[in-house]
Design brief:
Helix content is 35%, strand content 20%. The chain has 24 helices and 24 strands.
Length: 719
C-alpha cells in the first residue's frame, strides 16, 4: 500500500483531527467487511498499518481521541439477520506484535507494570492464533443454552442453533461443573474438509469457496442449521467469559480443565518462562504451519497466572496481559497478464492486476489490487519513490504478490531481471472505461496536492457508479432488502423493458406497480424467479418503506459516510427534513449550519465537506425527492430525561478528564438528555474542562459559554 502520508510528528492539530476522523471511518468499514461480510478488501498487514497510524496520532494528540476511535472498540456490529446477544463479559481483541523486539517489549512491559525485575519469574502461555471465527458458548447447569459471535465485543449474533450442529462442541458438560460457564474459542474449518467441500462443489457444477476462514464464517451464519451441519466445522477452546466458580488459577489450568470437560484444545500450547523460550516456540510453530490442518496467522502469548492477569487489567479495548505475535505476510511470484480498471460507487477508478494463477497461502490467486495510478508508477503522492530502482509495474512483468489472510492480495514489487523487452509503461485512463466521462484527480485545497484516487466525473450517468450505488443501497447495513442482492441488481439494471428496470433507488419501490401494470414483462415468468420468490421480494421491499433514519442516511451512499457517521448525523439532527435543510444551509461552507455540522463529535472537515457537496448536487436531490415519495425515514428517538438539568443542552468535554473516561462522560450526559459535541460553537451550552484544556476553553470563554470543571459538572448532574 502506498504511504504518502505526512509524518505524525509533522501533523498540525487540524490535520491530525481530520486524519483520525478518516481512519475511524475507514477502519470501521474494513471491520464490517471482515466481521460481517467475510469479504476483506485489504491485507491484514495493511489493516494493521492503519491501526498503528491511528495509535501513533492518538499518542501525540491524546485530546483528539474520538469516541468511535478504533482504539476504543472491537470488531463490527452484529448482523441484522440474527438476534443480538449481550456478552456477560466483553469479548476484547488483542494488541498485535510483529517482531522479536516487539515481543521482548511486551514481556518487559508486564514486569514494569507489576514493579518486578525481569528475572523470568513470570510464566506465559504460547499457543497458535487460529484463523477462524471467535465464539462464546454459554452453559447453565451444564446445558448449552447459547452461542454467540464476538460482534462488536459487547453484543454478538445469536447462532445457537448452528453451534449445536458442531460435533466437537459438547451439548452438555460433565457433572460438577460450575452453574454458569462461558467457554470461548475459535470456530474453524480444517484445510482437508475445505478441500473436500470444494471438490464436492466443483463436481456439482457449483461455485467453489475462496478459503477456509471465510467458508467457516459463512457456514456459521447460515439461517438453516442443516447447511451448517453439512460443512464439518470444528472448534478450539482457549478462553472464557462469565464463570460462577473458577476451576483453576492459571491460564494453562483453565485450558486443561476445558479439555477434561470434552472441548478440543490446541496441542501446541506451552507454558514458558523467558522471552527466548517464547520466541523459540513461535519460530517452531512457524515451521510447522504449512503442515497443520488448520490456518493460523500468529502465536498468542498470555500471562499464565490469573491473579497477575487481574492486576494487569485492560486498556480500552485489549488486555495488558496478552498479545498476538503475527506471522509475516505470505508471498509468491507470478506474472501480470493484464491491468483492468474497476469503477466503484464513488467513481473511484481502481486498477486491478489480472495474474497468472498462483497459490499463495493455500489460496489460488488470480487478481491483485494495484491501488491507484501512483502505485503503478512506483511513486507516492508527494513524489517520493515507494520502490527501489525507480521502477513501475507493467503488463508482462514478473511480480511479487503478497497475501495475508485476505482475498484481494497486492502486488509488492517487480522482478526487473525478468521484464520483457516489449513491456510498456501502463497508461492510466483519462476517461471512465464504463461511461466515457472524464476521469480526474481532485486537488486537496489545503495541501495543494493531487488526490491519489482518480474518479469518474459521470456520477449517476455512469452505469458502474449507479449500479454500485444500488448495491450499496440494498446492502445488509443499509436497506437490507432480502432477495435483492448483487446479481438481482445487475439483472434489473440491465433490463430493457421499463416494467423491469431499476436504475435508481426509487425504482425499487415502484417495481411492484410497474409489474402490475405490465401485460407482458412479468417477473414471475423469467427464469430464476417464480411466483413465490416474486411475492417474497415485493413483501421484503414493502417492509422497508419505513426505515431508521441512520440506515436511510447510510444508504444514500454519501462519500466518507459509513454506519458510525450515519448514526452520529441521525442523533444530531433527529429527522431527515431537519438534516437536509441544514446541509443546504451549509452550502457556502460557512455560517451556523456549517459550524454545527463540524461541531458534531466524530465529524471532521473532510467528512463535513463531502456531506455538503452531496446535497449541492441537483441530481442527488431529485433522486432523494422521488425516494421520499415512496419511503419514510423514521425520526431518531431522543433520550427523555425529565427533570435533568442538562436535558436538551449541548455539552463539550475537553482536556484530560481525571474523574471519568471520555466515553463514560459522554454516555452519562446523553442518558440525561444532553447532546455531546466535539467542538465549541454558538450552540454550545456547557463546556466541561479537565486539566490541559486549551483552545476550546478559550473559545468558550470568548463566547460567554458556561464552563465547569469536573467536580462542578458532577455536582450539576448529581454525581
Amino acid at each position: 500500500m502506498a504511504d504518502d502520508r505526512k509524518a505524525v510528528d509533522a501533523l498540525t492539530e487540524s490535520e491530525a483531527r481530520d486524519e483520525l476522523a478518516f481512519l475511524a471511518a475507514e477502519i470501521a468499514r474494513h471491520d464490517v467487511l471482515y466481521h460481517q461480510g467475510d469479504k476483506p478488501e485489504i491485507s491484514d498487514a495493511d489493516y494493521d498499518a492503519l491501526k498503528r497510524r491511528n495509535d501513533e496520532i492518538e499518542a501525540r494528540f491524546p485530546a483528539l481521541i474520538r469516541e468511535d476511535s478504533p482504539s476504543q472498540r472491537v470488531g463490527a456490529a452484529p448482523a441484522a439477520t440474527f438476534s443480538p446477544v449481550t456478552h456477560a463479559r466483553p469479548m476484547l481483541s488483542l494488541d498485535n506484535t510483529f517482531s522479536d523486539s516487539d515481543v521482548a517489549d511486551f514481556v518487559s512491559s508486564v514486569y514494569r507494570f507489576l514493579g518486578r525485575l525481569p528475572d523470568s519469574s513470570i510464566a506465559f502461555t504460547a499457543e497458535p492464533k487460529i484463523d477462524g471465527l471467535s465464539m462464546s458458548i454459554r452453559y447453565e447447569k451444564g446445558r448449552l443454552v447459547s452461542g454467540a459471535t464476538r460482534g462488536d465485543g459487547t453484543t454478538g449474533e445469536n447462532v445457537t442453533a448452528n453451534i449445536l450442529t458442531i460435533g466437537e462442541i459438547p451439548n452438555r458438560l460433565p457433572a460438577g461443573v460450575p452453574d454458569v460457564v462461558e467457554v470461548r474459542g475459535e470456530v474453524y474449518m480444517a484445510k482437508s474438509d475445505f478441500l473436500a467441500l470444494n471438490a464436492q462443489m466443483e463436481a456439482e457444477g457449483k461455485q467453489t469457496y475462496v478459503n477456509p476462514r471465510n467458508t467457516a464464517a459463512g457456514s456459521l451464519r447460515q439461517l438453516d442449521p442443516k447447511v451448517t451441519a453439512s460443512r464439518k466445522l470444528r472448534f478450539f477452546a482457549y478462553a472464557w467469559g462469565e464463570i460462577s466458580d473458577m476451576p483453576a488459577t492459571t491460564q494453562m489450568g483453565m485450558v486443561e480443565t476445558f479439555a477434561r470437560w470434552g472441548f478440543p484444545v490446541n496441542p501446541l500450547m506451552k507454558r514458558l518462562s523467558s522471552t527466548e523460550e517464547i520466541l523459540a516456540h513461535y519460530h517452531e510453530i512457524g515451521l510447522l504451519r504449512p503442515d497443520l490442518d488448520y490456518d493460523i496467522d500468529g502465536v498468542v502469548y498470555k500471562v499464565d497466572e490469573l491473579a497477575l492477569q487481574e492486576r494487569l487489567g485492560f486498556r480500552s479495548r485489549s488486555p495488558r496481559w496478552a498479545t498476538a505475535h503475527k506471522f509475516p505476510a505470505e508471498q509468491a511470484f507470478t506474472t501480470v497478464e493484464q491491468i483492468d480498471i474497476q469503477v466503484g460507487r464513488t467513481g473511484a477508478l481502481t486498477p486491478v492486476a489480472r495474474l497468472t494463477p498462483i497459490t499463495v497461502g493455500g489460496v489460488v490467486v488470480t487478481n491483485a489490487t494495484l491501488h491507484n495510478e501512483d502505485y503503478i508508477k512506483g511513486i507516492g503522492n508527494t513524489g517520493e519513490r515507494i520502490r527501489p530502482d525507480d521502477h513501475d509495474i507493467r503488463i508482462g512483468d514478473t511480480v511479487i504478490v503478497q497475501r495475508a489472510g485476505d482475498v484481494i492480495p497486492q502486488v509488492l514489487d517487480v522482478v526487473l531481471d525478468k521484464r520483457p523487452a516489449d513491456a510498456k509503461p501502463y497508461a492510466f485512463p483519462k476517461k471512465c472505461p464504463v461511461c466515457g466521462s472524464h476521469a480526474v484527480r481532485e486537488r486537496n485545497e489545503k495541501t495543494g496536492r493531487l488526490d491519489s484516487v482518480t474518479r469518474c466525473t459521470g456520477g449517476f450517468v455512469c452505469s458502474a457508479q449507479a449500479k454500485e450505488h444500488l448495491k450499496h443501497f440494498v446492502s445488509r447495513n443499509a436497506y437490507d432488502i432480502e432477495g435483492l442482492g448483487a446479481k438481482q441488481i445487475d439483472f434489473f439494471f440491465e433490463a430493457e423493458d421499463p416494467a423491469l428496470q431499476i436504475r435508481t433507488a426509487p425504482d425499487i419501490f415502484t417495481l411492484k406497480k410497474r409489474q402490475e401494470a405490465s401485460a407482458l414483462a412479468k417477473l414471475e415468468n423469467i427464469e430464476g424467479f417464480g411466483k413465490v420468490s416474486v411475492r417474497k421480494l415485493f413483501e421484503s421491499i414493502d417492509n422497508r418503506r419505513n426505515i431508521a433514519l441512520n440506515r436511510f442516511i447510510f444508504a444514500l451512499g454519501i462519500r466518507h459516510v459509513g454506519e458510525t457517521t450515519a448514526k452520529l448525523l441521525a442523533r444530531a439532527y433527529g429527522s431527515y427534513a431537519v438534516f437536509e435543510t441544514a446541509m443546504q444551509q451549509a452550502a457556502s461552507f460557512s455560517g451556523d449550519a456549517w459550524e454545527e455540522l463540524n461541531a458534531i463529535e466524530g465529524i471532521g472537515e473532510i467528512m463535513a465537506r463531502a456531506i455538503v457537496e452531496f446535497f449541492k448536487e441537483p441530481r442527488n436531490i431529485e433522486v432523494i425527492s422521488r425516494l421520499l415519495e415512496e419511503v419514510t425515514p423514521q425520526a431518531m428517538e431522543q433520550v427523555v430525561a425529565s427533570g435533568s438539568p442538562v436535558a436538551g443542552k449541548t455539552v463539550v468535554f475537553t482536556g484530560a478528564l481525571e474523574k471519568f473516561t471520555r466515553d463514560e462522560a459522554k454516555a452519562r450526559a446523553e442518558s440525561l438528555g444532553a447532546k455531546v459535541s466535539g467542538s465549541v460553537s454558538k450552540k454550545t451550552d456547557i463546556l466541561v474542562a479537565g486539566p490541559g484544556a486549551g483552545s476550546k476553553l478559550d473559545k468558550a470563554r470568548e463566547l460567554g459559554i458556561t464552563t465547569l470543571d469536573e467536580d462542578e459538572w458532577l455536582a450539576l448532574i448529581g454525581g
